[in-house]
Amino acid sequence: MSDQLTLSAETRDRAGKGASRAMRREGRVPAVIYGNKQEALSIHVEEKALVKMLSTGHFMNSVIMVDGVAGAAIRTIPKDVHFHPVTDRPMHVDFLRISEHATVTVSVPVVFVDQEESKGIKRGGVLNIVQHEVDLVCDASEIPGEITISLAGVEVGDSIHISNVTLPNGVTPAITDRDFTIATMAAPTIPNAEDEAADEALAAEQSAAAEAEAAAEKED
């Protein structure tokens, strides 16, 4: 199960771009808590604490207890984080208010294990990962931290679909209209005669250019 994290917050009284910029200069990140048939709550959180949580890699599929704004911690899950396009700093966070056993949809990372037992990898095959994360529907108190997929016995040409994955009890895929692919084991890329000839021609061209440059430097 994913972790339950606690994030301290303060109520945000001022709105608008100017107020948000001022908060960011003070090391705060504007945020909003909405949902569960209650009024949206504007808050701000400490940027350092938020960045630390983001660095865990499990922030988006963790229950976040937002504390310090309503007399008691508010149970939420993150729905979106807006980042600065240049600095990559978090600019705004959206939290969805949930009850303890609410049914939620979360993106859970996929982890592949048992590579040493894969016949395809032993033969030089390449694992092409189609889905690095899988959207799952589950109880908010039972969110998986990750989905583990064994590569034992996987051969070149095999595909791993969601139907091949054993999910925890009570957890189902969010996509139900097709048996989507998570990864494939592709054949190794073997260079042919044309590839080798092209490599040789490129090497010769680079060598000639280097010799010409060296000769020019001597003349100077």
UniProtKB/TrEMBL annotation:
Keyword RNA-binding appears in the UniProt entry: yes
Q: Which SUPFAM superfamilies match?
A: Ribosomal protein L25-like
Q: Has UniProt tagged this entry with the keyword rRNA-binding?
A: yes
Which organism is the protein's source? Sphingomonas arantia
Family note: Belongs to the bacterial ribosomal protein bL25 family. CTC subfamily.
Quick one: where's region Disordered? 1-23, 191-220
* Span of domain Large ribosomal subunit protein bL25 L25: 7-95
Q: Name one GO cellular component term.
A: ribosome
* Summary of subunit composition and partner proteins: Part of the 50S ribosomal subunit; part of the 5S rRNA/L5/L18/L25 subcomplex. Contacts the 5S rRNA. Binds to the 5S rRNA independently of L5 and L18.
Q: Which Pfam families match?
A: Ribosomal_L25p, Ribosomal_TL5_C
Q: What does this protein do?
A: This is one of the proteins that binds to the 5S RNA in the ribosome where it forms part of the central protuberance.
Q: Which domain of life is it from?
A: Bacteria
Give residue spans, biased composition: Low complexity. Answer: 200-213
| Large ribosomal subunit protein bL25 beta domain location | 104-188
What is the name of the protein in this document?
Large ribosomal subunit protein bL25
Q: Which UniProt keywords apply?
A: Ribonucleoprotein, Ribosomal protein, RNA-binding, rRNA-binding
